[in-house]
Amino acid sequence: MVLAVWAAQTARRTLLIVMLILTMLLGCVFLGIKAIEYKDKFEEHHVPGASFSFEKVPIPGHPPIPGQPGRYADPSHAQLFFSLYFVMTGLHALHMIIGLGIFLWLLTMAWKGRFTPEWHTPVEIGGLYWHFVDIVWIYLFPLLYLIDRHP
Predict the structure, then answer these.
(1) Which of 39, 81, 123, 145 is most buried, with most CB under 10 Å away?
(2) CA dist 72 → 52, 127, 147 (Å)
(3) How would you write the pLDDT of the chain (151 residues) with one tens digit per residue?
(4) Rama region for 45: left / alpha / beta (φ>0; ψ in -120 to 50; rest)
(5) Which CATH superfamily is domain 2-57+72-146 in?
(6) Among residues 58, 53, 101, 56, which one has the least CA distance to residue 79?
């Protein structure tokens, strides 16, 4: 997206179009990965609600000891985690879809040659929106995928 903004600023129409398409393709790849991930969660019954199912899973780094109840992940905590997971990643995906719609409009306007070095504000604003969505993911990814629970 940064290269698309730069291309708009420097009157490189073809590069602007290519970079918008590339940004949209990479956004779609990301959404496809999330769709596969969501499909797996639905198949494993990890969607909070009546059909939620979560087996006793040992806490990483703490092998279970027979007779000690605190060594397993709590299913009620798992349901809370997955509730937050679906809300946060779902809102992120929704904002990405909105961004793809914005880029489709920008692509149409770029194709028609509407952006010049003197007027390319919509491309910059679209880029700001996209980077805001990126920043949100920078916080969500470690929070949901990298940080391990330590008892």
Answers:
(1) 123
(2) 17, 44, 18
(3) 999 999 999 999 999 999 999 999 999 999 999 999 999 999 988 898 888 887 766 666 666 666 665 556 667 778 888 999 999 999 999 999 999 999 999 999 999 999 999 999 999 999 999 999 999 999 999 999 888 655 5
(4) left
(5) Cytochrome c oxidase, subunit III, four-helix bundle (1.20.120.80)
(6) 53
Q: Which two tokens stand for residue 147?
A: 């940080």
Confidence at residue 77, expressed as pLDDT on a 0 to 100 scale: 77
Alpha carbons within 13 angstroms on the beta-carbon side of residue 143 total 12
Which residues is 58 bridged to in the sheet? Answer: 72
| d(C-alpha 13, C-alpha 24), whole Å | 17
Asked whether the beta carbons of 102 and 66 are under 8 A apart, the reply is no
CA-based torsion, 144, 138, 133, 115: positive or negative: negative
